[in-house]
Design goal:
Order of helices and strands: HEHEHHEHEHEHHEHEHEHHH
Largest sheet: 8 strands, parallel, barrel
Radius of gyration: 18 Å
Protein name: Oxaloacetate decarboxylase
Organism: Kutzneria chonburiensis
Number of domains: 1
CATH superfamily: Phosphoenolpyruvate-binding domains
Distance between the termini: 51 Å
CATH topology: TIM Barrel
Number of helices: 13
Strand order of the largest sheet: 1-2-3-4-5-6-7-8
Pfam families: PEP_mutase (PF13714)
Low-confidence stretches: none
Shape: globular
């Protein structure tokens, strides 16, 4: 299946108004398994690519070209299954967003996700996120919508406002991004079932929810999310976490040590395994005014 056919397939599935469950894919085997098991979509997780592909935490260290190349590999491995692809902040200004959309589309993705964090971004379930003004992100979103050559490419607008600014601002931004033309809206890191329900009620657009193991958002069931009208539920950490635990357990057994010493229970602890503390120290050393 070509990228165009995958995009048409994702659009058709969205039109059915049934929840699309998209497990995280980050390498060839994860994408191949998602395809063979028959999921309706796979989600290119930036955190998974950073950790599994480069041994890095999800704090904005990967480049557009690195992510584009991984998107191309995974789109090919998924075959007929559409790929929903994380593109962080678009890797720069609106001009950079235009190139990012063109490169991702050429790589065969069915959907591209952009977020309103400042660069460098952080995992949505880590603290101390910084945002760009909503008007600035609307400009980026407009550039993305204008850049696609295939109108079936789904553009997903993510807001990370819930953490630093509260749910009211997150919902305001979500509706502004929907009004600006985003196909799907992603409010990152709601912190309770009541917030999940409120977003479903108050945001006038198809919705994506991110279910991260050990993250800030309750792991609500697919049936309940479907009832609430969510369009997409991504599970970015589920395959990655299982693979990492299997490797950790096997290597600990080989070394004769207890894997519990290293086992993460939340995203920050997982990223510690791939250098979060060390990279954070570097960032703090060169922080403006430090």
């Amino acid at each position: 299946m070509t990228g165009q056919a995958q995009r048409e397939a994702l659009r058709a599935r969205l039109a059915e108004r049934r929840l699309i469950v998209a497990p995280g894919v980050f390498d060839g085997i994860s994408a191949s398994l998602v395809s063979r098991i028959g999921f309706p979509a796979g989600y290119l997780t930036g955190a998974g690519v950073a950790a599994a592909g480069f041994g890095l935490p999800d704090i904005g260290l990967l480049t557009q070209t690195e992510m584009t190349e991984r998107a191309r590999v995974l789109a090919r491995a998924l075959g007929d299954v559409p790929l929903i692809a994380d593109a962080d902040t678009g890797y720069g200004a609106p001009l950079n967003v235009v190139r990012t959309v063109r490169e991702y589309e050429a790589a065969g993705v069915a959907a591209i996700q952009l977020e309103d964090q400042a660069f460098p971004k952080k995992c949505g379930h880590l603290p101390d996120k910084e945002l760009v003004p909503a008007a600035e992100f609307v400009q980026k979103l407009g550039a993305a919508l204008d850049a696609r050559t295939d109108p079936n490419l789904v553009v997903i607008a993510r807001t990370d406002a819930r953490g630093p600014l509260g749910l009211d601002e997150a919902i305001l931004r979500a509706n502004a991004y929907a009004a600006a033309g985003a196909d799907v809206i992603f409010v990152e890191a709601p912190e309770g079932v009541d917030e999940i329900e409120r977003i479903a009620k108050e945001v006038s657009a198809p919705l994506l929810i991110n279910l991260v193991i050990g993250g800030l958002t309750p792991l609500e069931s697919s049936s309940r999310l479907d009832e609430l009208g969510y369009a997409i539920a991504i599970q970015p950490s589920l395959p990655l976490g299982a693979a990492a635990w299997a490797m950790l357990s096997t290597l600990a057994e080989l070394a004769g040590t207890d894997p519990a010493r290293w086992a993460p229970t939340k995203p920050a602890e997982f990223f510690t395994l791939v250098g979060l503390a060390e990279w954070s120290a570097i960032g703090e050393r060169f922080r403006e005014g430090a």
